Amino acid sequence: MTLAARVWQRYEGPTWCVALAIYAGWAMLILAHARLPWWLIAALGAPLVAWHGSLQHETIHGLARVPRALRTLVASPPLGVFFPYSVYRRSHLRHHRNEQLTLPHADPESFYHAPERWRAYPPALRLVYGINQTLLGRLTLGAALRVGGAFAGGVRAVAAGDPRARRDALVHAAWLGALAAFVTGIARMPWWEYVALVAYPGTSLGMLRSFYEHRWTADHAQRTAIIENRFPFGVLFLNNNYHAVHHDDPALPWYRIPAVWRARKSAFLARSGGFHFTGYRTIARRWLLRPVFDPVAISRDRELHLNGRITP
Fold this sequence. Notes:
By secondary structure, the chain is mainly α. It has one domain. 62% of the residues lie in helices and 1% in strands. It is built from 17 helices and two strands. It has helices spanning 3-10, 13-31, 38-61, 68-75, 85-95, 115-120, 123-131, 135-140, 142-159, 163-186, 191-210, 233-236, 243-248, 257-263, 265-271, 280-287, 300-306; strands spanning 226-227, 276-277. Strands 1-2 form a two-stranded parallel ribbon. It is globular. The termini are far apart.
């Protein structure tokens, strides 16, 4: 193996190529926005923002031989506007406690609701959360619900005097200032247009991957899905749609995931209880307008699990 090949593998060259493609493509799109129709800006900008979210996810688990400060620098520009990278990183690492997946008291990425909280919601909010259980609802309302929840949590933490929350807010504000300076100052793109055509649609597109990547079952090994798709969504999500493979070995680089899936397909299918789909078309056909699962407990045993009173 040549020296170049060893360096390529050791420092995860494919991931750096993705980072270069994202930032170069994003910059060219924003600079050219005035010559493009709004629908083309959205059609190109949303996938770039969603792809950037996948890159952020990869930096949390991968690039182990790269200094963390450099990984953080690469992932921190908030192309999607709404979420500080540092907050996402801490939250996502908590999500990887596999025995706590889907439990709303423990899994920050759960779409389930503890029974007592559900009963306390106003009827209109229960309706919104119910709509959010459909794929169409998730792709339209899901990002707003996530952003609203994250913003409210951040405000509460800052108001409570949490120094880490204040630092997160200040760093994110600085990054947003730099982003706005490029978008509005250099590219002359109105900020509202960037948010409406690029940031929010990109955040919504990212919700497709998480729509049904986890489910409640008593066996936590069966809570994580496999959704087969190499292109375009496998590229867009950096193969994180093979989610059971990722949870089995979070440090596995994204470009090696499909090979591991092919080599151990039978084992993954058996362990996951067949929580497997051949593509996103299947998911859209089944749940575009139908709830994917009940967002709250439907039995006493499950209610105990969701409230954390027993451990699965």
